[in-house]
Write a structure and sequence with these properties.
Elements (H helix, E strand, L loop, with lengths): L1 H27 L4 E7 L5 H18 L4 E7 H4 L3 H10 L4 E4 L8 H5 L10 H23 L1 E8 L3 E5 L13 E4 L2 H9 L3 E4 L5 H6 L5 E5 H6 L8 E3 L7 E7 H6 L2 H34 L13 E3 L3 H23 L1 H15 L7
Helix pairs in contact: 2-11, 7-12, 12-13
């Protein structure tokens, strides 16, 4: 009996020692590395609750202190989006949280991720992003020496205007700040003129009467204090602005397989939290800019909330089908548009085809 017990104890000890050695060996295959990372704007929720904590806390903890991120917001560098991707390609940065509008080379393909007016809700926006991601991966790898690791999203995009806006008819003749060509096409189709202005410059442009309206997400509008220089939130959804976390491909390929696997696992969790929290924040942003509900982010604004009618939604859909998709198809090319229609359009009753 004693011999059997001793043998069992010895076997258990050997097994524990072997497991411990294996665990140590596995831990040793995680690289020790500090990455240079560029985030979005440091006064917005994505940065405060997701991006910065991920690189300064979450990844550090998950890797046992081996992986860290030296992260700064894009507005701290005073960079334009297109400059960010060029610097990422050159290896100045290892990772970046980017938007489709940051891409110049291959822009139309990337734009297919989030064409203005396509996504009706967050579920559809995520589905479109997942379906189109393999297509944009090709562009990022071949032209930008980069790989997309995950997507993230911004709150529902609406119109913030000086003066009163009751229907889409009131947008006619207005100068509207847009981000990206498809939003420009949508504004034009609705009878407005589009102006491309960086997010950080919109407040000044509104104050100086350079523009009369601007499109952005509900909570970003509040955080940027647009409610202080506008009068109406016209809640006609035009999209959600899907972005992505991208890595320099050279940096990525130099990491050990275990390191890449760990980062991918943590990034997946970050992606899930981003989509979930942003969906909740959409309504909070409406409350915060209009005062129509509780605002957890601070004192509420007093914008007039103008909701679109069935006719307004029909006008948006008409603009999408007759102008926006056709214009995008022409920029992206016959094969690209056909592929988008195959993957996404047929599922949602949309066709991207140039005249």
């Amino acid at each position: 009996m004693r011999r059997r017990l001793a043998a069992a104890v010895l076997a258990a000890a050997v097994h524990a020692a072997a497991w411990g050695c294996a665990a140590t060996a596995s831990a040793q295959t995680i690289d020790t590395k500090t990455f240079n990372v560029v985030g979005t704007w440091n006064y917005l929720t994505n940065w405060q609750k997701l991006e910065k904590p991920f690189w300064t806390e979450d990844l550090d903890k998950a890797s046992g202190g081996k992986l860290k991120g030296n992260i700064k917001a894009v507005n701290e560098f005073n960079l334009k989006g297109t400059e960010l991707l060029r610097l990422l390609k050159q290896g100045v940065f290892d990772f970046a949280f980017a938007l489709p509008i940051y891409v110049e080379d291959g822009a139309a393909v990337i734009e297919g991720l989030d064409i203005a007016g396509v996504a009706r809700d967050f579920k559809m926006a995520k589905d479109v992003a997942d379906l189109w991601l393999p297509e944009i991966q090709k562009v990022m790898r071949e032209r930008h020496n980069a790989i997309i690791l995950s997507t993230h999203v911004w709150p529902e995009q609406n119109f913030y205007c000086r003066g009163e806006i009751k229907t889409v008819e009131d947008l006619k003749g207005k100068s509207i700040r847009v981000q990206g060509q498809s939003q420009s096409d949508l504004a034009t189709a609705l009878g407005a003129s589009s102006v491309t202005i960086g997010f950080g410059e919109v407040m000044s442009a509104l104050q100086k009467d350079i523009i009369e309206c601007a499109i952005t997400g509900t909570m970003p509008a509040y955080k940027a204090k647009w409610h202080e220089v506008t009068n109406t939130l016209f809640r006609l959804p035009v999209g959600f602005t899907v972005g992505f976390l991208v890595a320099n491909l050279t940096t990525w390929n130099k990491l050990s397989a275990d390191t890449r696997a760990l980062i991918e696992k943590e990034v997946k969790s970050l992606e899930e939290r981003s989509w979930k929290s942003t969906q909740a924040e959409t309504e909070e942003g409406v409350y915060c800019t209009t005062g129509t509900g509780g605002c957890p982010a601070g004192p509420a604004g007093k914008l007039k909330l103008s909701k679109p009618s069935a006719a307004d939604l029909k006008a948006r859909d008409k603009a999408l089908n007759e102008t926006v998709l056709k214009s995008w198809a022409k920029r992206c090319g016959i094969e690209c548009a056909a592929r988008w229609t195959e993957l996404i359009g047929t599922k949602y009753g949309l066709t991207a085809k140039a005249d």
